[in-house]
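User: Before I run my own analysis I want an independent prediction to cross-check against. Here's the chain; please return only the structure tokens and, at the end, one sentence I can use as a sanity check.
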Amino acid sequence: MQYVEILIAALAAFLVGFAWYTALFGKEWQRLTGITDEEAASGMAATHGLAFLMMAILAYGTNYIINMHELAEQTFAHGAFHGLLLGALYCLPALIIHYAYQRKPFKLYLIDGGYLVIFMALMGGVLAALKLG
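Assistant: Structure tokens:
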């Protein structure tokens, strides 16, 4: 297994998260969660470090699934398909269970759930596309 692939895929997911939670949905996400600018800025290094570690773990698991296929089948589209399935069938239902019990607003389901599915698809695509043979 190529650990560089995992780190690159995690970085891709992290960068999508940066755009997602700043330019695209940052203010709305803060409003829905009740997190202030000061709270969001507090402990940012630890939060981002933990998030990156979890993304690397997700990339490791996704790569495990992708590697069950022949190397010739491991294209960006094929990897993105597996990432999309993992995001939609594992990550998203787990998020929805937690948000349902916490009575979170539906719009927050869409913001956070959409991010999970998109970054998992991107992560899978990156992992498959980076196969070095």
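Sanity check: The chain has a mean pLDDT of 95.
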